[in-house]
Design goal:
The chain is mainly α and about 180 residues long. It is about 85% helix and about 0% strand. It contains six helices and no strands. The protein starts with a helix and ends in a 17-residue tail after the last helix.
């Protein structure tokens, strides 16, 4: 734990690395929060089978396209790839929320989830390729990589917790936290 905190402090001394790591905090936490919310939404729409389907829809296209999307950061500005990736992903998330709120067919939300995941697939290699150019020393790069790993670990815990809190606070949930549309008793 002490090494992780020391790595965070060392990485955050560099302004450019700090900005990248702060963006990573939001991105990782948001990804995990949205994954929980999407799973709850899918369950409400079609039960466990819909949850499985939406997870396949999110992961399969990203897995197939990952090798091709990784090349984007070599051929284009890494910052631009990251920005466009996040803008496409955020737009898709807003679209999913609008679909859910308007009661439109769940397939639209699932398609937008695939778009968001595909866009996110381009972000990670761009971030990994950009990080060495931001570090002033090998020690700073090591600290930045340690910080990135710590941030990912914390985000993978905090994100689902936040997602669960957001979903449980929505109208339509009973005192047991179960969505009435899901047919839970």
């Amino acid at each position: 734990m002490r090494e992780a905190l020391a790595g965070l402090r060392a990485a955050f001394r560099n302004r450019s690395i700090r900005r990248l790591q702060l963006a990573e905090i939001g991105s990782t936490t948001g990804l995990w929060a949205y994954t929980v919310a999407l799973g709850v939404y899918a369950y409400g729409e079609g039960g466990a089978a819909a949850v499985g389907l939406v997870m396949v829809i999110r992961t399969l296209p990203s897995a197939v396209l990952a090798p091709f999307l990784a090349v984007l950061s070599d051929r284009h500005s890494r910052r631009r790839v990251m920005l466009i990736s996040d803008l496409v992903g955020a737009t898709a998330l807003v679209g999913m929320a609008a679909v859910a709120e308007a009661g439109l067919p769940a397939g639209l939300a699932y398609g937008l989830a695939a778009c968001s995941s595909i866009a996110g697939t381009a972000f990670t290699p761009a971030r990994a390729a950009l990080l060495p150019s931001l570090a002033d020393t090998p020690e700073e790069l090591t600290a930045a990589n340690t910080a990135a790993s710590t941030i990912e670990s914390i985000g993978s815990f905090a994100g689902p917790a936040i997602g669960g809190l957001i979903v449980s606070g929505r109208n339509g949930f009973d005192e047991h936290g179960l969505h009435q549309r899901c047919g839970a008793k």
